[in-house]
TrEMBL record, chain A:
Protein name: Xanthine dehydrogenase family protein molybdopterin-binding subunit
Superkingdom to which the source organism belongs: Bacteria
UniProt-recorded Gene Ontology molecular function terms: iron ion binding; oxidoreductase activity
Source species: Hymenobacter metallicola
Lineage: Bacteria, Pseudomonadati, Bacteroidota, Cytophagia, Cytophagales
Domain Aldehyde oxidase/xanthine dehydrogenase a/b hammerhead per the UniProt entry, residue ranges: 22-138
Pfam family, one: Ald_Xan_dh_C
SUPFAM superfamilies registered for this protein in UniProt: CO dehydrogenase molybdoprotein N-domain-like, Molybdenum cofactor-binding domain
Record-linked Gene3D superfamilies: Aldehyde oxidase/xanthine dehydrogenase, a/b hammerhead, Aldehyde oxidase/xanthine dehydrogenase, molybdopterin binding domain
UniProtKB/TrEMBL annotation, chain B:
PROSITE patterns recorded: FAD_PCMH
InterPro entries: CO_DH_flav_C (IPR005107), CO_DH_flav_C_dom_sf (IPR036683), Diverse_Substr_Oxidored (IPR051312), FAD-bd_PCMH (IPR016166), FAD-bd_PCMH-like_sf (IPR036318), FAD-bd_PCMH_sub1 (IPR016167), FAD-bd_PCMH_sub2 (IPR016169), Mopterin_DH_FAD-bd (IPR002346)
The organism of origin for this protein: Hymenobacter metallicola
Example of a GO MF term: FAD binding
Name of the protein described by the UniProt record: Xanthine dehydrogenase family protein subunit M
KW Flavoprotein (keyword) present: yes
Keyword Flavoprotein: yes
SMART domains registered for this protein in UniProt: CO_deh_flav_C (SM01092)
Length: 741, 327
C-alpha cells in the first residue's frame, strides 16, 4: 500500500499477523526470566465455610518445592486492609477477593494455596499433595432457588440516578391490560469466556518496592492501579506488560486471585514467579457471563404497534461483589413503546464473581427482548422484520434525544437481502429439505458508542520512521493495525514506516480495552498526536512550511512535502539534525456531544437454520450480520470482529452452558469435553455487511464500535429461526437436541 | 502428574510380563486417554509399558474375516481399503469419533479401553464409585444428562464413550488377547461389562492381558450401513447417543440386520431383539419404527436424560433409513 492511498477503510493485513502465526508474538506465559519459579494453585473443594487447617507437609517435601503459601502463612498484603471498592468498576460494589486474607471459603475451587517450585511440573505434582480441612456451611448456588432473595443492587439503592434502578416510562406494567399480550420467561445459563490463551502472569519484584507484571489483562493501567493499591505502592513503581493478549472476551477486565497469588508467591520466594491457570481453573476463578433469569411482558395493537413492555431480570452475583450489567438497556431504547418498565435484581450466590462477557448484559437482555419480538410478531401474524419496522425509533425514546446516527433500517435491508428473507414463511414448519426443517430468524443488537480519554505519544525517529505509543491493549481485534492506518492517513506516511506500540502501562495512558471503546477513544488520540507531530515538524522545516496550511503537509518517503509546491521538500535527515524535540504526547477526550446525542452502534443478525426432524440437531446454514458501526477503519479486522461475535453467538444459542451440581456447589462442566464451543463445522461462512457511514458526533473518525454488537442479537436470531423451522419456542439456552425432539 | 517409570519393550511377552509383575504398571498405546487421566490424577501408574514397538498394527485378511492389530491407528483403520470394502460401518464409526489429530494417535486397543467421560469420574473432589469404590455415585442424583438408560446399577450409571466399539459389537467382532496365562478370544459383546457392584472394572480383561487384535467375520454388510451419532455440535464431541446399523437388503426385504447403540449403557449396547424384528420385513419406515420400539424396551431414565427415551428410537429410525438408502 502506498502512502498516497487512502488508509482508513483499507483492508490492511494485521501488522502483527505474521508474528502471531509464526509463534513470534510473545504472550504473558512465554516470558522467561532468570531464576524463575513456577506456581500452581490449589482450590477449595467446598463452596462455603471456613478453612480449619491445611496440611502442606508432603507438598513442601516434594522435589523442587520452594514454598506453599496459604492463609495460615501468607505475608500480609498491606493494601488488603485499606483497599476498598474498585473505582474503575463503578458497576461493581464490593471488591475483588482478597486472597489468603482470611479463612473464609466463598466458592468452590477458591484459591486456598499456591505451591511454588523450580519447575511447573513439580509445582503441579506437589499441588495435589496439599490437603485441607474445612468447617463446612450450607451453600447456595442455585439462582432459581434464590429468586425470592433477589435484591436491588446497593449502588442503585444509594443513588436514585443509578442506571440499575427501576425504570419507568408511561404506566407501570401496562402490558397486563393490553389487547394482545404475551408474558414469557427466559433463562440463559452461565457461559464462560474461554479465550484460547489461558490466564497467566509472571510477577517479578525487581526491588522490594518495584513490581513488574507480565500479565494477561485488557487494561495495563487498571491492573497497575489494582496491584499498586494492593501493595501500597506508588503507581509508577508497578509496571504491567501485555504486549499480546490471546483473546479475553471480558475475562481480563478484572483483577483475579491468581494474579494476587503470583505476586505474593514472588515476594515469598524472592524470585520471579510464573503462574498459568489450567483450563479447569478458567471455569472457576476468572469470571463468566452470569446465569440470568428474565421475564418479559409485551402488549401490542392488532396493527402491530407495541403498547407496553415490562422486562425484569435477575442476574447471579457472588457474595463478595455486586456485579451488575446492562441487561435491560436495549429494551428501554430499541422500540417505540409508550409504556416501558424495567426491573433489575441480583441474587447473591456462593460462587466466584461474574465478569462482563462479550456483549455484556445486552446479549443476555437481547435474547429475551428479541425472542419476545418474534413471539409477538407470530401472534400478530406479521413478518418479524415488518413488526420491527412498525416500531422503529427515530429518536431515543429513553433519553428523548436524537440519535447521533442510526442506520439500522439500512442494516435490515442489507441483511434481509443476503439471507434470502423473502423465502421465510409466516407459518412455522413450512419449509423442509428432506429430513431437515428449515427456518429463518432475526435478532437486533445495540451497544453504546462509548468513548473515553486516551493519550498517544508520537515521535519521528532518526531513521525516518514514526513511533507511536499507548498503554492500550490489543486483545485480538487488531488495535495496532487500525491505529497504524489512522496514523498513516493522518501523516500521509507509508504504514510500513509507522510502528504502534501498545500493551505497556508505562506508555501514555489509555483506558481498558472493553466495551467496544478502543477505536472510539484511542483512534482520535492517535489522529491528534499525528497532527501535532506534523505541526511540530512544520515549524522546524523552514518558511515555506511555516506559512503553509496544516492539511497540505505530508510525510512521504523520507521527506516532509507540501501539496501544490513541488519545490518544498525537506529531508527528514535535515529535520533530525536540527535538534529540538521531535516528539509529542497528546490526549484526546470526548466532547460535549455525548450530552446532546444518544450514541449507539446497531446490528442485525439473520439466521437460516436446519433442524433435523428426528434427532433435533440444529445446524446454522446461513448467518448474515450487518452493522451500523460508523466508519469502518479496516474491513478485514472489522469483519473478523463480526465473524468472531457471530460464532460466539452460535455457541451461546446452541451449546454453551456451565452447570453446577448444587449439592456440592461445584461445576461439573470443567473441560472442553463437557463445555462445548463451536467448531468449524458448526459455523457457516458468516456474511458480514457494514453500512459504513461515519458518525459525526462520537469522534472525528466517525467510528462507533463493533466488538459487542457482533454477538448481541445472534442467539435470538438463531432461536427465532428454530421456532420458524419447528414451531418450538425455546426460552432456555442453549438449544440442544434434547429440547427439540 | 506422578513420577513414573517408562519402559518400551519390543516383544509382546516382555510387555505382558512387565505389567503382570508390577501391581502399578500399565500399558500405554496412543496415550490419548491415559495421559489425560494421569494429568488429572485419576490414573496414577508407577510404570508405563509403552507397547508402540510391538508388531501389532497390521490390518489383514484372516480366515473368513479381517484381523485388525491392536496397535493399528484409528485413522489407519478408517482409511484402510480392506476395511472400507468389507466393513464400511467400522470406518464410519471411527471417523465419527474425536478429531483427525486424535485418530492419528489413538489405537484400536486403546479405543476399546478408553474410560467413561462421566464428569464426576473426572473430578477428584466428587464422589465416584468407578474411580474410588465406596464413595458413592455422584451422577445418580446429580447431573446425569449424558448417562445410561440401560444396564446400569445403583453403583454406577456411566456410559462407555467409544464410537468404534458400537460398530464392533454390531459386527460380531472377537477380541484376541494374550496374557500371563496364554491366549484367549473374547466375543466383543462380552468384552465390556455392566457396572453391577464393581463399576471400577470396565471390562473382563485381566491384569497383564494384552489385546493383540480384533477379528471381524466377513458378512453381507458392505453397502447398507450407517453410523448415526447425535451430539451437541457438528463434530468433535462425545455422543449423546449413537446407533450403528447394518442391513442386508434384497428386493426391499431385509435379509439380515445388525443394530447397536452407543451412549446408552456401560458397554456398547447390541440390540438383538430389534434385529430380529427387522429380518424378513420390508425396509420401510414402519418396520424401522417397530424395531426401534422393541429396542427401547426396558430403558429407564434419570432426572436429566429422559430425552434419550425419545432420541433413542428416533436415532435408530434415522440410522436404519440412511442405511437402507445407502447406495
Ligand atoms: C478430546 C478427545 C475427544 C475424544 N472424542 C472421542 C469420540 O468422540 N469418540 C470416541 O470413541 N473416542 C473419543 N475420544 C477417545 C479416544 O478415542 C481414545 O482416547 C483413544 O481411542 C484411546 O486410544 P489410545 O491408543 O490413545 O489409548 P491409551 O490412552 O494409550 O490407552 C487407553 C487404555 O488402554 C490400555 N491399552 C491400550 N492398548 C492396549 C492393549 N493393546 N492391550 C491392553 N491394554 C491396552 C492402556 O493401558 C490404557 O488403560 C476422544 C479423546 C479425546 C482426548
Ligand atoms: S456414573 Fe459411574 S463414573 Fe459416574 S459418578 Fe457414578 S460411579 Fe462414577
Amino acid at each position: 500500500m502506498k502512502a498516497q492511498d487512502k488508509q482508513i477503510g483499507a483492508p490492511m493485513n494485521r501488522v502483527d499477523g505474521r508474528l502471531k502465526v509464526t509463534g513470534g508474538a510473545k504472550y504473558s506465559a512465554e516470558y522467561e526470566l532468570p531464576n524463575m519459579a513456577y506456581a500452581v494453585l490449589v482450590g477449595s473443594t467446598i463452596a462455603k465455610g471456613r478453612l480449619t487447617s491445611i496440611d502442606a507437609k508432603a507438598a513442601e517435601k516434594a522435589p523442587g518445592v520452594l514454598a506453599v503459601v496459604t492463609h495460615f502463612n501468607s505475608p500480609k498484603v498491606p493494601g488488603f486492609d485499606t483497599a476498598g471498592k474498585d473505582p474503575s468498576q463503578p458497576a461493581t460494589v464490593g471488591g475483588p477477593l482478597k486472597i489468603f486474607k482470611d479463612d473464609k471459603i466463598r466458592y468452590n475451587d477458591q484459591v486456598i494455596a499456591v505451591v511454588v517450585a523450580d519447575s511447573w511440573e513439580r509445582a503441579r505434582y506437589a499441588a495435589r499433595l496439599v490437603k485441607a480441612q474445612y468447617a463446612q456451611e450450607k451453600h447456595k448456588t442455585n439462582l432459581e432457588a434464590s429468586v425470592s432473595d433477589a435484591f436491588l443492587p446497593t449502588a442503585a439503592k444509594k443513588n436514585p440516578k443509578h442506571p440499575m434502578n427501576d425504570y419507568q416510562r408511561g404506566q407501570v406494567d401496562a402490558y397486563k391490560t393490553g389487547a394482545i399480550k404475551l408474558e414469557s420467561e427466559y433463562v440463559i445459563p452461565t457461559e464462560v469466556h474461554h479465550p484460547m490463551e489461558l490466564q497467566s502472569i509472571t510477577a517479578h519484584w525487581e526491588a522490594p518496592d518495584r513490581l513488574t507484571l507480565y500479565d494477561k489483562t485488557q487494561g495495563t493501567m487498571a491492573t497497575r492501579r489494582d496491584f499498586a493499591k494492593e501493595w501500597n505502592l506508588p503507581e509508577e513503581n508497578v509496571k504491567v506488560i501485555a504486549t499480546f493478549v490471546g483473546g479475553a472476551f471480558g475475562n481480563a477486565l478484572h483483577s483475579w486471585p491468581h494474579e494476587s497469588a503470583a505476586i505474593i508467591a514472588a515476594k515469598v520466594v524472592n524470585r520471579p514467579v510464573k503462574l498459568m491457570l489450567t483450563r479447569e481453573q478458567m471455569f472457576t476463578n476468572v469470571g463468566y457471563r452470569p446465569y440470568t433469569w428474565q421475564k418479559l411482558g409485551m402488549s401490542a395493537t392488532p396493527d402491530g404497534k407495541i403498547t407496553a413492555i415490562t422486562h425484569e431480570s435477575i442476574g447471579q452475583t457472588s457474595t463478595y461483589e455486586e456485579f451488575t450489567e446492562s441487561t435491560l438497556a436495549q429494551t428501554r431504547m430499541m422500540y417505540q413503546s409508550p409504556n416501558v418498565t424495567t426491573r433489575y435484581r441480583l441474587a447473591s450466590l456462593d460462587v466466584c464473581s461474574p465478569i462482563w462477557m462479550r456483549g455484556p448484559g445486552e446479549a443476555t437482555g437481547a435474547f429475551a427482548l428479541e425472542s419476545a419480538m418474534d413471539e409477538m410478531a407470530h401472534m400478530l401474524n406479521l413478518d418479524p422484520l415488518e413488526f420491527r419496522l412498525r416500531n422503529y425509533t427515530e429518536q431515543d425514546p429513553e433519553k428523548n434525544k436524537p440519535w447521533s446516527t442510526k442506520f439500522l433500517k439500512e442494516c435490515y435491508q442489507l441483511g434481509a437481502e443476503r439471507v434470502g428473507w423473502n423465502k421465510r414463511q409466516l407459518k412455522p414448519g413450512s419449509l423442509r429439505d428432506g429430513e431437515w426443517l428449515i427456518g429463518y430468524g432475526m435478532g437486533v443488537g445495540t451497544f453504546g458508542a462509548h468513548r473515553g480519554a486516551a493519550t498517544v505519544g508520537a515521535q519521528l525517529l532518526p531513521d525516518g520512521t514514526v513511533l507511536l505509543q499507548c498503554a492500550t491493549t490489543d486483545i485480538g481485534p487488531g488495535t495496532g493495525t487500525v491505529m497504524t492506518q489512522i496514523a498513516a492517513e493522518t501523516l500521509g506516511l507509508d504504514p510500513k514506516k509507522i510502528r504502534f506500540e501498545l500493551g505497556n502501562s508505562s506508555f501514555p495512558k489509555a483506558g481498558t480495552q472493553g466495551g467496544s471503546s478502543t477505536v472510539n477513544s484511542v483512534g482520535p488520540a492517535t489522529q491528534e498526536a499525528c497532527l501535532a507531530l506534523k505541526e511540530k515538524l512544520r515549524t522546524l522545516a523552514g518558511a515555506a512550511f511555516a506559512s503553509a496550511k496544516k492539511e497540505d503537509v505530508t510525510l512521504t518517503d523520507g521527506y516532509l512535502t507540501l501539496a501544490g509546491n513541488a519545490g518544498a521538500r525537506v529531508p527528514y535527515a535535515d529535520l533530525i539534525k536540527q535538534g529540538g524535540d521531535k516528539a509529542v504526547t497528546v490526549e484526546a477526550k470526548p466532547g460535549p456531544e455525548g450530552q446532546q446525542y444518544s450514541m449507539y452502534s446497531f446490528s442485525v443478525h439473520f439466521a437460516e437454520v436446519r433442524v433435523h426432524e428426528l434427532t433435533g440437531e440444529v445446524r446454522v446454514s446461513k448467518l448474515v450480520s450487518c452493522a451500523d458501526a460508523g466508519t469502518i477503519v479496516n474491513e478485514k479486522t472489522a469483519g473478523n470482529q463480526m465473524k468472531g461475535g457471530a460464532v460466539g453467538g452460535i455457541g451461546m444459542a446452541l451449546m454453551e452452558a456451565a452447570h453446577i451440581d448444587d449439592r456440592f456447589g461445584r461445576y461439573v462442566t470443567k473441560d472442553f469435553a463437557d463445555y462445548h464451543v463451536p467448531v468449524h463445522a458448526d459455523s457457516p461462512d458468516v456474511q458480514v455487511a457494514f453500512v459504513n457511514k461515519p458518525d459525526p458526533h462520537v469522534n472525528n473518525l466517525g467510528t462507533k464500535g463493533i466488538g459487542e454488537i457482533a454477538i448481541i442479537g445472534v442467539a435470538p436470531a438463531i432461536a427465532n429461526a428454530v421456532f420458524n423451522a419447528t414451531g418450538k419456542r425455546i426460552r432456555e439456552l442453549p438449544i440442544t437436541p434434547d429440547k427439540l425432539i | 502428574m506422578n513420577q513414573f517409570q517408562y519402559v518400551r519393550p519390543s516383544k509382546p511377552q516382555a510387555a505382558i510380563e512387565a505389567v503382570t509383575k508390577d501391581a502399578n504398571a500399565t500399558f500405554i498405546a496412543g496415550g490419548t486417554n491415559l495421559v489425560d487421566l494421569m494429568k488429572r490424577g485419576i490414573a496414577t501408574p508407577q510404570k508405563l509399558v509403552d507397547i508402540n514397538r510391538l508388531p501389532l498394527n497390521k490390518i489383514e485378511k484372516e480366515n473368513n474375516g479381517l484381523r485388525i492389530g491392536a496397535l493399528a491407528l484409528n485413522s489407519a483403520v478408517a482409511d484402510d481399503k480392506l476395511v472400507r470394502q468389507k466393513q464400511p460401518l467400522l470406518a464410519l464409526a471411527l471417523n465419527a469419533g474425536a478429531s483427525a489429530q486424535l485418530r492419528n494417535m489413538a489405537t484400536v486397543g486403546g479405543n476399546m479401553l478408553q474410560r467413561t467421560r462421566c464428569s464426576y469420574f473426572y473430578d477428584l473432589a466428587m464422589p465416584c464409585n468407578k474411580r474410588e469404590p465406596g464413595t458413592g455415585c455422584g451422577a445418580l442424583e446429580g447431573i446425569n444428562r449424558m448417562h445410561a438408560i440401560f444396564g446400569f446399577s445403583d453403583k454406577c450409571i456411566a456410559v462407555h464413550p467409544s464410537d468404534m466399539s458400537v460398530a464392533l459389537v454390531a459386527l460380531d467382532a472377537t477380541v484376541l488377547v494374550s496374557g500371563p496365562k496364554g491366549e484367549r478370544r473374547i466375543p466383543f459383546a462380552d468384552f465390556h461389562r455392566l457396572p453391577g457392584d464393581t463399576p471400577e472394572k470396565d471390562t473382563n480383561l485381566e491384569k497383564g492381558e494384552l489385546i493383540t487384535a480384533v477379528d471381524i467375520p466377513d458378512g453381507p454388510f458392505t453397502k447398507h450401513v450407517h453410523y448415526q451419532k447425535v451430539r451437541e455440535r457438528a463434530s468433535y464431541a462425545f455422543a449423546l447417543l449413537s446407533v450403528a446399523a447394518a442391513l442386508d437388503i434384497e428386493n426391499n426385504t431385509i435379509k439380515a440386520a445388525r443394530l447397536a447403540m452407543g451412549g446408552v449403557a456401560h458397554k456398547p449396547w447390541r440390540l438383538t431383539a430389534a434385529e430380529q424384528v427387522l429380518v424378513g420385513k420390508p425396509a420401510t419406515e414402519a418396520t424401522f419404527r417397530q424395531a426401534a420400539e422393541v429396542a427401547m424396551q426396558g430403558a429407564k431414565a434419570f432426572k436429566h436424560n429422559a430425552y434419550k427415551l425419545k432420541l433413542g428410537p428416533n436415532t435408530i429410525v434415522q440410522a436404519l433409513r440412511t442405511a437402507a438408502a445407502a447406495a
